[in-house]
Every structure is written in C-alpha cells, then in structure tokens.
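Two proteins, back to back. First:
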Amino acid sequence: MLFSVDLGTPVNKAVDWLTENLSGLFDAVTTVMTELVNAVLYVLTAPHMVVIIAVFTILAFFARGWFFALYTLGAFLLIQGMGLWTPAMQTLAVVVVASVFAVVIGVPIGIWAARSPLVSALVRPVLDFLQTLPVFVYLIPAVFFFGIGLVPGVVATILFAISPAVRLTELGIRQVDREVVEAAHAFGARNGQILRGVQLPLALPSIMAGINQVIMLALSMVVIAGMVGADGLGTIVVRGISQLDVGIGFQGGLAVVFLAIFLDRTTSALATPRIRRWPGRGRTGKTPVADTEKSSSPASSTTPVSA
C-alpha cells in the first residue's frame, strides 16, 4: 500500500453535522413528501377500483389503441385478483411524486446546462456520480436524515431518477438547428421567447424521452426502497426474499412488470404522435401541406372531395 486515505470519516462527520443542524429542514421535507404521497394515494384509492381500472383502460386506449387497452384491463384486473391492489397504488403514488419532483428539478437544470457551458461542465460529473453510485448507497444517508419509512425512499428515488431529465433536456436543446435559432434572433425574438417558442417545442421529443426514463428509473428504485420501509410492491418483494417465499416474490415482481409496461407505453406515446391512416391524410394524422394549399385555394373549394 503506497498510502492510506480515509474518506469515510469526513463523510460521517458531515452527515452528523447535517443531522444535528438541519433537523428542521429535514422535518419539513418529511412533512411535505408524506402529505403529497398521501394525497396522490387518496386520489388512486378513494374511488372504487373498477373506476380506476376503467380510467387507466381509457387512457391506454387513447395512448396506444385497443390492444394496449385490453392489456391494461387484464393487467390491473390480475393485480387486483392477486390481492396487490393497495400496494400497487402505493407504489404508483410514490412513482408519481418522485417523478414530478425529478422532472421539476431536472428539466430547468437541463435548460440551464444547455445555455451555459460552465453549468454543463459542473453538472455533468454530478450526474455521472448519481448514475454510477450503487443504488443501495442512496438509502444510507436518506435513512439518517429522514428515518425509516416512506420519505427516505422518495428522496432516494428522486436523486436516482433525476439524471435522464437533465441529460436529455440539455441534449434536446443543443440539437435544435442553430440556423432556426439565428433566424428567430434576426426577427427580434428575445432569449426567453426563443426558448419557449423555438427550442422547447423542437426539443420536446427528447425531453419526453427523458421523462419516460425518469418514471422507469423511479419505479425500479421504489422496489429497492421497500427495504427501508417504503410501503408498496417493494415491501411484497422484500417479504418474499426474507421469507424465502417464491410465490409472494413472483406476484410482487409480476405486478411491478405490469406497472412498468403500462407507464412506459403510456408516457412514450405522449411523446410520439399517434400514427393513423386516414384517406387523404399523412401517417401522423395531419393533412399534407399540398392538400392544405389546394383546399384553401378558391379553385379547389368547388372541387369534389373524391376528385
């Protein structure tokens, strides 16, 4: 050994200092997170489960069509049949809250990083650290700050899932054609107007892909958060492991897979225009430019549609 470095001692001292001096802040975060998760859980569990399943099925139909709607109906009926409805809704509530926080924090940071090379250089190593750190390590300081239960799982999930929102937002804005931005400048648009009217709309597919990845990472982390007491399907999976009960673990894992497919297909459909094949329309359901010009000209207004 050439030399010895002890990085664990200063980290422990930093955690102890934060725990002693910022306990009020951590209590406030605990209160806010708990209330938000309980509010979302109330929305998901107050109506009868048939109503929630019908809403999810209708949402799946408009997102992907009949086949995906039938899958959604069968998946959630099977979750209810396995007796995992409440844990599944608890997991969904945690995923929704953690994903919203990750997107609300991550997208503005991504925009800032796209517009400032210095911010991009500072943020990138932090994201590398968050993405490569073993997922179980997130739970250790979270338990020290927030105790055992739901909140450390939500906070650890936010930190674990925030990276795609930042990276893909920055990437999407950087990939906007520079000539389009220069043309907007030439017409006198300000930076804020260019961001809202040009860069964000053109970068929307990349941003939505990042949001989709945030949701999927949040779902994967929520299961691990069950080890620190976060209610939901993670608790079911952990119970199956601790009791060596393959059946319980399989049912919990299968419910997670059903939720993952539903969330992934639904959120990815929001970023992609639904492909339709209507007579006289393009693949995206929009009327081709040539047809629009014909229909708007006086001569074509008297022409039958079949012509």
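And the second protein:
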Amino acid sequence: MPVMTMLEAIRHTLHEEMARDPRMMVLGQDVAALGGVFRATEGLRDRFGAGRVVDMPLAEAVIVGASLGLAWSGMVPVAEIQFLGFTQQAFHQVAGQLARIRARTGGMRGCQATIRAPFGGGVRAPELHSDSLEAQFAQCPGLKIVAPASAADARGLLATAIRDPDPVLYLEPLRGYRAIKDEVPEGEHTVPFGQAREVRPGDDCVIIAWSAMVQTCVRAAAEVEAATGASIGVLDLRTLVPLDVESIVAAAQRAGRVVVAQEAPPTAGFASEVVTVVQENAFYSLEAPVARVSGFDTPYPPGMLEEHWLPGSRRVAAAVRRTLEARA
C-alpha cells in the first residue's frame, strides 16, 4: 500500500470521487486557482474544469447556502471552509437549514452535502483559526460529524461522507495534514460511520480521543506503559455523530479505568458526552472516576502560548497515572 500524508489522502480522495461521480462539485474560498489554502484541492480545476471547481467569496454562509441549493438541485457539493472557527459565520445555514432537511421533509429527502474544515491547534495560527467547535455542531440533529486520525481513515471516511445521502461535517486536524503519515489502501476504500478504531489494546486503562489527539494519546500510553508496566489502550472514535457507543462501553468495561482527551475547552465539550456514555452504560465496571483532559475555558491563545494550552502527552499521561492510582 502507498504511504501518504493525511493531506495527500484527502486530495487523492477528492480526485477519485470527482472522477467517480460527475455530479460532484467542489466550492470554497481559493479552492480553484490556488488549490486551497493547504493545497487539498490542488489540480482539481485543471482536471475537472471551472464548472465543477468554483472559487467562492469570503462569505461562509454563502458557501454553505450554495451547497444546500446545489444538493437540492441534484448535485453533490463538497464545500471547503478554510478554518472551522469561521463556520460561526455560517452556523445558521448549517444548523438551521442544512442539518434539518431530513426532519423537515418527514424523512423523504436528505441533503447530500459535505463540509470540509480544518480545526485544532499546534501550528501557531492566528486567532479563530485553531478553535475546536465540534461540540457545537454535535448539538445539531441531522448533521453527521467525522474526525479522522490517520491518512487511511482520512481517505475512507471522506469517500463515505461524500456518498452519504445526508449532510456531513468532515473535520481535518491542522497539525495532522503533513505530520500524520501512514499506509493508505488502494482501490475502492470506504470506512463506515459509527465504528470506532482500537489503535492499541490495553487492559488496565483506556484513553478515548479523536482526530489529532489520538496521536498525542498513543505517545502518552507508551510513556505510561514504559514507566509503570500497566497496559494502556487507545480508542479512536473516528466519528462523533454517529457515536460508537458499543465500542466505548466495551473498552470501559474491559479496562475499568477511562481517560477522555479533547483539544476543546472543558465546559460542555464533546468529552463530556463520552464521559456520560461511560457513566450510564459501564458504571459498575469502573474501578476509578472517569478522567477528562482538555484545553482551558479561555479563548484559544496566541501561538507563543499554545504549547501550554494544548493538552500534550505529558498532561494525558499524568491523567492516566492518577486514574491508575485512584479507587472508585
């Protein structure tokens, strides 16, 4: 299998899906002439033409609103929002329009539209570029949310998202675009939604994460294992909506100790939803309180401070050690 970065896997999939389905279009700011701010859409306009790869104005609500109209006209739009923090400008179009189509039509019609958006920190980006807003969108019934942590999953989950009959928010980790690199299957490759991935097995504690935090948690698990001899597992959620409740509960019941890690601020973050799932379904298997590792309840800081703000492997490892020593 070829080795690709996550960015290469995303670009490869966009080319493949546009060749597979002539209804597919790509739209967003700078996606055509420039090939996207990170070059994820590079080469698409030259190969498929300006009628299917369209530069849009700096107006996120227009990009999502146009995607809604295109989908209802029989096209398959894949919109790029340059950074997830900017989706606040399009929140009404996403939450109030796109996500509600299935419910509004009594289940008769969906809206086959994908919104791609990079998120998360680690690259010293300016204000608003690194915000992790996944919990806001998880509160929008009808919207599916995807957050791959490997290049192979980036390809398989993006293909599934584009082919899904309902709207999908596809989250791409900023610091993972070129840093995450692994083998990517050739030929037809899709990854079903709602199936978490066991990244490493572990019987004494499991760390649950998604997107770029999975890499951080793998390093933390290895550190704790080397220092204590305890067996530490890592579970990658892959999709937040739908959520693989069965795998979360099974991992919690097997290990008895759980740490949930996210980049977002702690209050009402998606980690709280995962903790609730564990408490409701695996409470009597727990040998210690469920721990949560996150950013802080502040706006995302300037680049010179983000190493202190972002949860790194040392903070995750410290939470795992506390959980191993705690008693329920």
